[in-house]
Amino acid sequence: MADNPQLDGKRDLAKYFGIHGDMRTPFKVLLKEMEGEGFIARTRKAIRRTATLPLVTSLDIPTDADPDDLHAFPSQWNAEEGEPPRVRVIQPRGARVVPAPGDRILARIDAGEGLVPSYTARPMKILDKPRRGQIGIVRVDDDGARLIPIDRKQKEMRIDGGDLGATRDGDLVEVSVKVSGRLMIPKAKVVEVIGNPKSEGAVSMIAIHNLEIPYRFPASVVKEAEAAGEVSLKGREDWRHVPLVTIDPPDAKDHDDAVHAEPDADPNNAGGHIVIVAIADVAAYVRSGTALDREAYLRGNSVYFPDRVVPMLPERISNDLCSLKQGENRPSLAVRMVFDSEGRKKRHSFHRVVFRSAAKLSYGQAQEAIDGRTDDTTGPLLEPVLKPLWRAYQAMVRARDKRGPLDLDLPERKIILDGKGMVADVRIPERLEMMRLIEEMMIAANVAAAETLEKHRSALLYRVHDTPSREKLMALREFLASLDLSFGKSEAVRPVDFNRVLAKARESEKTQQVSEMVLRSQAQAEYAAENYGHFGLNLDRYAHFTSPIRRYADLIVHRALIAALDFGKDGLTDDEVTKLPGIAQHISATERRAMLAERETSDRLLAQFLAGQIGAEFQGRISGVTRSGLFVRLTDTGADGFIPASTLGQDYYRFVEEMQAMVGDRTGETFRIGDTVSVRLLEAAPVAGALRFELLSEGSRGKPSSVKRSTKRPSRPHGPRSHRR
Q1: Domain assignments of the chain as residue spans, ordered by start
Q2: Among 24, 248, 266, 311, which is disulfide-ready with 252 (CB 3.0 to 4.6 Å)?
Q3: What is the pLDDT of residue 723?
Q4: Which of 452, 463, 445 minimizes the C-alpha distance to 278?
Q5: Neighbour tally for 129: CB within 10 Å
C-alpha cells in the first residue's frame, strides 16, 4: 500500500493479490487483524496504511505519565486514522529541554524499523498549551440561549434549547463549538456546568476554569496525605528550647516560617546578632516521585484569590503537619546566621531540627508591641524575643541600604468580601515595619541557601531577575526626558540608578508617573537552573527557600540542601537534577498563570462591585496610554477601566510614545501616564472584568502634536467635555 497508493479499498487489494473464492474470508480476517494491530486504518469503505508522524511534530505528554519514563501522543490526530501512536520521550542526561507530565512539546521523531513504527521523540522545545475549551455565562431567552464568553476577544454564540442540558440562566459553563447551516454559523453546546458566579465564592472559579488551574486533588494524593504521620526527632537536632515565633498576616491559615534573634556573645563580634530562620520541612512529607510530589509539581504553586486559596499541597500537609503551630513539635530546615553590628553576614549554617513555636503573632500585634503597646501574648515576649529581633533587623537595614536594592514600593490593595462572596470594601493595608523585618530575614535566608548549594557544587533552582533590556531602557530615558528628568546613558545600569531618579521624582511630585514607568522597564523574575543574578534585589545569587508549602521551587531547594549536607535520604535525586531546566520553565509558567488568575478575579469582583454605580463620578489616575485610548485606575478601589480615544473631546489626539501621552493636534492638550483625572462610569461588564469610563477632566496644556495629521476625522464632542469647551 505504501508503494501503490491507488490501492485504497478491500476490492482493490483482493484484485491485486488475486484473492477469490474460499480465500476471501481469511483475507477479511487478516485485514481486520491488521487494523487492530495498527498496520492499517479503515474509513468507511476505504482502507489505507496507518498515517506516520512527521519528522518534527508537537506532542502532548499526559498529566499522569511516569516522570521517569515519559510517553506522549500527537497533539493533532485524525480520529479516522485509528488510535494515535504512543511515542516514547527520550531524555538524555544534560539535555537543555526537559519536559514533564502535562507539557506540550515540539519534538524530533524517530520512527524506528518495521511496518508499524515504534516512535521515539527527542524534545526540542516546550510549547504553550491552548486552553481546552471556551467558557462563558449562559443567558436564557425565548429562542434558547446565548453564551457570553469570558474572553473579551470572542463573540457571543447561540445555544439551541436541546444543547443546554441542566443549565440555568446565569450559569458559568464550558462549551464545545459546532458549525451548522450553509452560512457555517458557529453555535455552542454545553459540555459542563461549572457554577453560578453570583453564588458565594464562585467568581474565582471563572479564572480557575479559564486558565485550567488544577483545584481538585486526586484521590491518590489525598490518601497519601492523610496517611502521613508526624516526624520524630530521629536524625534531627532538638531545638525545642529556642523561642522561635511566627509573624504573619492576621488571616494566615498556614505558617511556614519562624524567626528568632539574640545578641552574639562572641567578643570578636561586638554589637553583632545571631538570627535564626526556621522553615517547615515539607521535604520530609513530600518525597520525590510520590503522588503528592507529582501533584505539587503540576500545580507549581498555591494560587491566592480574595475568596479562596487553591493550595499546592493538601490541607493535611499545608495546614496541619507542616504548619508551624504554636506549642506543637514541628520538623524544620533552619538556617543560623551571624551578622556583625552593621548587618553584614559573617557566616551561616543549616540544621535539620525539631522545634516548637513559642507564639503565633500577627504583623500588627508584633508592631504594636515594639511601639510600646503590648498585650497578654506579646508582653512576656517583648524583652527576650521581640526586641532582639528588632535590633537585629535595624542592623540588617543598614546593610540593605548600602547594598541598594530597587526601592520601588507600590501600594497593593486588598479586597474584603462579605458573607456572600461579594466585595464589601477595598483597602490598602498599612505597610508595617514588622513586615519589612520578616521580608529582610527571609531574603537573608534565601541568599544563604544559594550560597551553601553553590559552595557544595550542588544543582539548584535560582530565583533570577534580569537587567532591563536596551529597548526598555531607551523608552524610559525618552519618557524621563519629557519630564525634564535625566537618567544615565550607560547600559550597565544598577538599581541605584533607578533609585536616584525615583528620589528626584518624589521631590518634583512626579512619583506616580515615574514609578509606573520604572516598573514597566523591569524584566520579569523567573526560575532558572542557571544563575544570572537578581537585579531588583541587587544580589549575585538568590534562591527561594522560605515557602515550600506554597512554592515547588522552595521544595526543590530544600531537597538540594538535604542532599548536599547529607541530612537524610529524602534529598534531591540525580534524576531530578537532570530535569531542573524543565522544572524551572514549568514553575515559571505556573507562577505567571497564578498572577493572571488573581488579577482577572480581582477585576471581575471590582466590576461586579461597581456595576450598581453606573453614572457615578470617581477620582483616578491614568495608568496606561495606548493609541486606542487611556487606562484609568480608580483611587479608592484600584479598579481599572478604559476611555476610548474617540471620546476624549473636540480635538484629534495622537499617541506620543516617548511621553506615554495622548496629545491634541490643535490645542496641545495632553493626557499622560500618572495624571490625576475625574471620570464617570458608563459601563461595567462583571463577567469580563471590564469597565468603561468617560473623561471629565481637562488635560494639561502643551505643544500641539508635531506628527503629520491623519485623514481620520477628529473626535466628536462628547458629553461634559463638549459643554466644558
Answers
A1: 10-126, 134-196, 219-466+523-599, 470-521, 614-724
A2: 248
A3: 32
A4: 445
A5: 14
Q: Residue 279: which H helix or E strand, with range?
A: strand 273-280
Distance between CA 658 and CA 502 in Å, rounded? Answer: 18
**What's the rounded Cα separation, in Å, for the pair 716 and 203?**
38
| Cross-strand pairs, 622 | 632
Cell, residue 298: 503540576
Find the Cα–Cα–Cα–Cα dihedral 566, 567, 571, 574, rounded to 10°. Answer: 10
Distance of alpha carbon 558 from alpha carbon 165, whole angstroms: 49
Task: Report the distance separating Cα 559 and Cα 576, nearest Å.
Answer: 10
- What's the length of the chain? 725
d(CA 333, CA 335): 7
Are 581 and 97 a contacting pair, CB within 8 Å?
yes
Which set of grid coordinates corresponds to residue 464? 533570577
Say how many C-beta atoms besides its own lie within 10 A of residue 427's C-beta: 12
DSSP labels, 646-665: GGS-SS-EEEEGGGTEEEET
Burial class of residue 719 in the structure, from the number of CB atoms within 10 Å of its CB (0-12 exposed, 13-18 middle, 19+ buried): middle
- Taking the CA atoms of the chain, what radius of gyration do you get in angstroms? 31
What is the amino acid identity at position 629?
G
Joined together, the cell numbers standing for residue 599 give 488579577
Strands 359-362 and 245-248, bridge-based pairing: parallel
**Integer angstrom CA distances of residue 383 from 202, 374, 390, 521:** 46, 11, 10, 44
SS3 395: helix
Residues β-bridged to residue 348? 337
CB burial string 156-181: b at 16+ within 10 A, e below: ebbbeeebbeebeeebbbbbeeeeee
**134-196 has which fold?**
OB fold (Dihydrolipoamide Acetyltransferase, E2P) (2.40.50)
CA distance 289 to 68: 9
What does the alpha-carbon distance between residue 108 and residue 92 come to, in Å, rounded to a whole number? 14
Q: Does the pTM of the predicted model rise above 0.70? A: yes
Helix (H) or strand (E) holding 172: strand 172-180
Is 84 strand, coil or helix?
coil
Judge residue 375's burial from the number of C-beta atoms within 10 Å of its C-beta, 0-12 exposed, 13-18 middle, 19 or more buried: exposed
Please state the rounded mean pLDDT for residues 318-342: 96
Classify domain 10-126 at the CATH class level.
Answer: mainly beta
pLDDT tens for each residue of 249-283: 988 878 999 999 999 999 999 999 999 999 999 99
Q: Which of 643, 629, 633 is nearest to 683 (CA)?
A: 643
CATH of range 614-724; options 3.10.590.10, 2.40.50.140, 3.30.70.1400, 3.40.50.300:
2.40.50.140
pLDDT in tens, 358-401: 999 999 999 999 999 999 999 999 999 999 999 999 999 999 99
